[in-house]
Amino acid sequence: MRLIRLPGMYRPQADTRLLVSAYVHEGLPRAARTVLDVGTGTGVVAMAAAEAGGGNCHVTAVDISRRAVWAARANSLCRRRRVAVRHGDLLEPVVGRMFDVVLANPPYVPAPACNLPERGPERAWDAGNDGRLLLDRLCRQIPHVLRPGGSVLLVQSSLCGVDATLRMLGSVGLRARVVARSREPFGPVLNARVRYLEDGGLVEPGCREEELVVVRADRQA
């Protein structure tokens, strides 16, 4: 799929494909009337949700990057997918709204900097020393936008603690489990910080691959 992608934007990769595949495989499009895509980037996940919904699903996408918002809007228009794209930080643009399904591919890469970058391409992947600055916030906030009986699918790397995500989602009243896995070789970002990952005990010496997982969490009806 050819996409409009402005300089500095995240290119859809294995985590994007795994999230879309899990959404379809879990059978969520059949019941989803409202879908939220958090961290939409180029809009690939949002467009896939709109297509899977067959015109009966209202999809909203959010991103903190204005470039991503512009690109997602343009891509959706070019492919005639009905996606409402909003600019803002995580769930702030949809405060007060509820969704049947929340899809999320937030930044989750462990980084030497303890704070989130405010600009530059690193904004699309860096997430603090342990990669959890945005994951933790998202897990805490999801119940505020998820309808009773609704589900969230969240993709992340094993490098930033899958068990921590499961525990946090459980602590806010959601039933969470891993529904998809994929082992992937390190890309340029992780290869460039192998020493940091090894020194921090996030990977074993010599390891050059990560496991991507999709966590599903359901809210009781």
Task: Provide a descriptive summary of the structure in words.
β4 (99-104), α4 (133-141) and β5 (146-157) form a beta-alpha-beta unit. The chain is globular and about 50 Å long. The longest helix is centred in the N-terminal third of the chain and has 13 residues, at 66-78. The chain has 221 residues and is of the alpha/beta class. It has a 7-stranded mixed sheet, with helices on both faces. 29% of the residues lie in helices and 26% in strands. The chain has 7 helices and 7 strands, in the order αβαβαββαβαβααβ. The protein has a single domain, classed as 3-Layer(aba) Sandwich (Rossmann fold).
Key features of this structure:
alpha/beta; seven-stranded mixed sheet; Rossmann fold; 7 strands; about 220 residues
- Total strands: the figure is 7
**Rounded to an integer, what's the Rg over CA atoms?**
16 Å
Number of domains: 1
Examine the secondary-structure arrangement and name the CATH architecture.
3-Layer(aba) Sandwich
Number of helices: 7
**Arrangement of strands in the largest sheet:** 3-2-1-4-5-7-6
- Please identify the top-level CATH class: Alpha Beta
Strand content: 25-35%
Write the layout of secondary structure elements.
Blueprint: H1 14-25, E1 34-38, H2 44-52, E2 58-63, H3 66-78, E3 83-87, E4 99-104, H4 133-141, E5 146-157, H5 162-171, E6 174-185, H6 188-192, H7 194-199, E7 209-219
Parallel strand pairs: 1-2, 1-4, 2-3, 4-5
Antiparallel strand pairs: 5-7, 6-7
Helix pairs in contact: 1-2
